[in-house]
Amino acid sequence: MTQDTAVAGGPVRHGARDALGVFAPVAIGLSAGLTVLIGLLGPSAMVPGLPGPSWHPPYSLDAGPDGHLVIALAAAAIALGGTGLAAALRSRWRPDPRLLLWAGSAVAALLALLPPSGSADHLNYAAYGRLAALGRDPYAVAPAAFPGDPVAGAVEEWAGVTSVYGPVATAVQALASLAGGDSVRLTVFGMALFNAAAFVGTGLLLHRLTAADADLQRRAALLWTANPLMIYHLSAGMHVDTMAVACMVAALFAFSSLRGAAGGATSGVLLGLGIGVKLNAGLVALGPAWELRRRPGRLTLVAGTATATVAAVYGIAGPHVLDQVGAASRKVSLGTPWQPVKLALQSLFGPGAYAVWIQAGSVLLLAVLAWLVFRAVPGGPGGAVPAGGRLLPSAPPVPPSPSTSAPVLRPVPPEVPAPLVAAVIVVAWLFAAPYALPWYDGLAFALLAAAPAWPALEGFVVARTAILSLGYLPAREALRPDDLLWLKTVVRQQVVPWSLLALTAALLWWAARAGVRARRRPA
Predict the structure, then answer these.
(1) What would the pLDDT profile of 367-377 be if each residue is shown by its tens digit?
(2) Which of 118, 170, 390, 423 meets the CB 3.0–4.6 Å disulfide criterion with 237?
């Protein structure tokens, strides 16, 4: 039997790839269906209740499902989604990319009509928008200051916390609040429509960015629009990260598609708006900066317009806009490998947060990860081309020399495109960050979808998102059955951190080996 080497880590037989091709669409379809079912069932441990008339959107059956059932459905959606996505990326399944695009978009549109699920963050968004619409500063005033307000009073765990989101996100939330008025349901529905438009719009832009190759279009749809993990977190979960990703993909599209000063200025403004949604989205700007490092004029234009946009939106928001961001940067989330590190430091040196030590360690790990992975970038400094990957555009051959009729190839590595550089940096940040949640990974998936295929790195990101997602079942405290507390104390606080630590070590080992092999490969 012949063998194929389409995946990192060794050959895969055609029969196995055929089996993966059968499993992948079934698993992806089931995962998306379960995600829809969770929202359709209505308020539960996974779906916060929305006060207001039931005839107001979003709609649900309000079936009152058992908490154990909906959490089991969510676990199945994540497990099927992660394995189905991994199988689709490694199989010989070749659906029409337009079919994937429209199927994923249809699911996103349907989910906009259902209550958001997975966490209660959308209630925070509605409250911050409500405060802004009432003329209050959501960066200085917490929702708890208005306990009797029909919208601000609906917040669950984070009622006493001011907004950590950027001014652009707050502006969208305020617009939804103005449209929804005193109704939590209508406010959330307004944000859900905007979220669905951002999710689908990102998919359409990625489809256009990869238009030159049907295989890359198919892969882009799998990594974003038809990605069951992103459907679960960003479509059903309605997290603000969707807006940040949409701005950054639009910036990359303008950067690659528009020429002259208009393209540079448009790209810069969109980068600034993305940073205006979430500060960490600014890591994407390093991709265009790298690609333009030898073109100082265009680099100055892009960087200048991006900086001016960021200064404008954050300046308008007022002096307290970064207060909560500073506090959040010192936190360590339960589901990252830094949680056991923090506990170890406390056991050795006594009580304390040790935020400075952990922050320094995370920056060092980020730098090491980014450097090692960048050495193995397809067509990058090491010249690596992963199995199943695609060669980037290379330098043209030198004309034949007088002594031979064969062309002499230039020993110059091809240029690494902005999306791939940005993807490497964002992936390194996600693995190194002390505070990270599974929906943050949407930025990495979108960047990988816009970049040349790299199966190994994609596999690490899929595994990371699936593991971290299982640790946040559910990502809220309310209505979780008491006998399922172990999902937090055991899975989230112990199993997930050590699993991600092992995965991070595997990524370091793989990147180091891939970089060495790439440097040994003849030019």
Answers:
(1) 999 999 999 88
(2) 118
Whether the pLDDT of residue 411 is over 80: the answer is no
Q: Give kind and range of the element (H or E) at residue 12.
A: strand 12-13
How far apart are the two ends of the chain, measured CA to CA in Å? 32
CA 33 to chain centre: 21
Beta bridge partners of 378: 384
Helix (H) or strand (E) holding 262: helix 260-277
Side-chain-side CA neighbours of residue 373 (13 Å): 27
Q: What contacts 14, CB < 8 A, 6 or more positions away?
A: 1, 2, 3, 4, 92
Q: Is the pLDDT of residue 410 over 80?
A: no
Alpha helices in 355-495 (DSSP H): 355-375, 418-432, 442-450, 455-471, 486
Helices (H) and strands (E) in the chain, counts: 20, 2
> CA-based Rg of the chain, rounded to a whole angstrom?
23
Q: Taking each helix axis as running N to C, give the angle between helix 241-257 and helix 184-209, from 0 to 180 degrees, rounded to the nearest 10.
A: 30
DSSP H stretches of helix in 278-354: 286-291, 296-317, 323-328, 338-349
Angle between the 67-90 and 14-41 helix axes, to the nearest 10 degrees? 150
* Residue 395 neighbours by CB distance under 10 Å: 12
- Residue of 194, 193, 113, 180 lying closest to 149 (CA atoms): 180
Give SS3 for 115. coil
